[in-house]
Amino acid sequence: MENDTIMVTGATGMLGREVLERVRRTGRPIRALTRRTDLPDDAGVDWYTGDLTAGAGLDEALAGVRTVIHCASDLRHFKNDVPALRHLLEAGKRAGVEHVVNISIVGVDRIPYPYYRVKLECERLLAASDTGWTSIRATQFPALLDLALGALSKLPVVLVPSGTDCQPADPGEVADRLVELALGDPAGRVPDFAGPAVYRAADLARGWLRATGKRRAVLPVRIPGKVGAAWRAGHLTAPDHAFGRRTWEQYLAERVTG
Fold it and tell me: Global pTM?
């Protein structure tokens, strides 16, 4: 019988947790990779300790795995994402992994932001590999916008980039799509996944302030340089791929006011 084990990297992160839960529902054998040595007692999931950046523990973790859903990313040390993926692909090749499903970000090829450049390099590394692959870009997660607005609201005035649109996408819905792709054959780069509605950054901030009961003025400011120009050009959004259903307002109602 063909092995159909699925491994999730970054399984303790915001997206990884959602993916892990959805893979569990498929009934497929499931593994999860973490840098932690104190592994969770998680019925139905085989947890492994491994360090993608160092390339440690990967051969054991990937032995017998057919498909990897790669959600691991280190926002604090994002330059490590490239060697981490390289180590994953090398170990996957040794283990006979047939399919790597990768999550990326809408706009990585058009916004010269350092983290985005790293994500684009990861896309290219994956595409050049000998392993079957699928890669999908998603728009911003509401919880990350929530976090950013929480930090910005510590000032008397909430400063937001002027002329900038955002299109929040629910991580649970992105996870649904990732698992759907993992259950299929390698498909290369597939259409982006964006949230159901496009919002001006200032309107996102005003909605957040209403929901949290904070009284602040919102001040749009022009972000200079190529990054600001790319934001104003709409490169954070993918309005033609608004596949998501859960709105920013629903997130605020359920997460902030709830």
Answer: 0.95
